[in-house]
Amino acid sequence: MTHNPPNLTTLTSTNKRSLFVLLSLLFLFLLSFNGASIFSVKIPSLAVNSPAKPSRNLISVQEDTTSDDVVSSPPPPTTATATAAAAAAGGDTTNFVNPNYPNPNTFLPLLRKSHSFEIESENLSAIRNKKLLKLLIGYSGRRRNNFPARVKQFFTKNNETTSSCHIRFFMTWISSLTSFNERAFHSIESIFKSHPNGCLLIASNSLDSIKGRQILQPFVEKGFRVTAIAPDFNFLCKKTMAETWFTRLVRGHIRTGIIPLGQNISNLLRLCLLYKYGGVYVDFDVVILKSFSELKNSIGAQSVDQGSKNWSRLNNAVMVFDKMHPLVYKFIEEFALTFNGNKWGHNGPYLVSRVVSRVQGRPGYNFTVMPPMAFYPMNWDRVRVLFRGAKNESDARWLKVKYEQIRNQSYALHLWNKESRELEIEEGSIVRKILLDHCVFCNISSTDYILTTSD
């Protein structure tokens, strides 16, 4: 019996198939391993933190130093007004002395994300932002259409018992009434303590209500001029670059991103209010310390570059501008053209920093960059010391010197609500003293008014 030799062609084909299968399995193994390592998330254990001092870093976020988040910043204006303003605010005027040419090595540092910043899925963010947008554009159409008339009536002296507005203040409240707290109440108190003849207009849907008016009623009963009016975005954005942007937002053509839409709406709303009416904008976590009557077309530096002694970052929590000021128009234009809902601060502090770095020194723009001591005497990363009382004689001496410095040199104190909202105001602390110095209802707890309206 004869045996046929094996077919070499068949063996070669079989070996190739086996090799292909082996390589495919190896490739799938590597791919699955790589995917597991890329998409794995390490969640730090909360148990490692001391109960007495819980960690604020619930999610560890590594600082990104890519070029996308670093904006070149030339020095502030070389006008005499900047130096004079620094001196008036008690700051070191050398921080605002410019060389003859812009320093190309000056950069804006990255804005630090809040420790309490909540990271959520894009779907959840989109749902939340859609609900807010629906509320903003659909809330009480009749009142919103009357916005210009109501604002005009508020700012107009109606009779002999109504004082004229010596200075106009604006605030925005995008949140619900349940979020309105004692700190927000104190901020309003400080405005009227320093400006009894001023007017405060709060652009807000929630405060423009029966319960909202109850919160503000104690100020009205004392003769202060304050009101809340639901904003008309179509009117406020009209004849600016924001008009098209807001239309696209309503039609769903703007990606709102993971940053709360309310935060970015507030960034735009404050600019539009200043551009339409002129005056002073302040955040609800700002305490006013002295009269703003001498300030004109001013924005505050938050920090100074220690090398160049020039401002390194501006902030938009306090702004003073005339009606239809060209710089504010540029701010609105920048917002509409470069909106990004995924970068914290991109449409706020970073925005004003970018624009000022481009237009300063150009003809037609007249503004002053105030030194950090004017509005931001304590940076966000050290603000907690202002809430602490003295533990020993050394603490007491330091607190006394710092308190006197802020009281004498600052126009306002930013409390950085994201960083300090959970902090207790200790007895003997700087914040405690400042709130007592600038209260209107000093013998009555503001909590009583707020709790009454929430019933």
What is the gist of this entry?
The protein has 17 helices and nine strands. It is of the alpha/beta class.
Which secondary structure elements does this structure contain, and how are they paired or packed?
Layout: H1 8-39, H2 80-88, H3 122-138, H4 141-145, H5 147-155, E1 168-172, H6 182-194, E2 199-203, H7 210-221, E3 225-229, H8 233-237, H9 242-250, H10 261-277, E4 279-282, E5 286-288, E6 298-304, E7 311-321, H11 326-338, H12 349-359, E8 368-370, H13 372-375, H14 393-409, E9 412-414, H15 417-420, H16 430-437, H17 446-454
Parallel strand pairs: 1-2, 1-4, 2-3, 6-8
Antiparallel strand pairs: 4-7, 5-9, 6-7
Helix pairs in contact: 7-17, 9-11, 10-11, 11-12
Report on the structure:
- It is a single chain.
- The chain has 455 residues and is of the alpha/beta class.
- 43% of the residues lie in helices and 10% in strands.
- The strands form 2 sheets. It has a 7-stranded mixed sheet, with helices on both faces. A two-stranded antiparallel sheet has the order 5-9.
- α9 (242-250) runs parallel beside α11 (326-338) and α11 packs across α12 (349-359).
- The model is unreliable at 35-120 (pLDDT under 50).
Properties at a glance:
455 residues; two-stranded antiparallel sheet; globular; alpha/beta
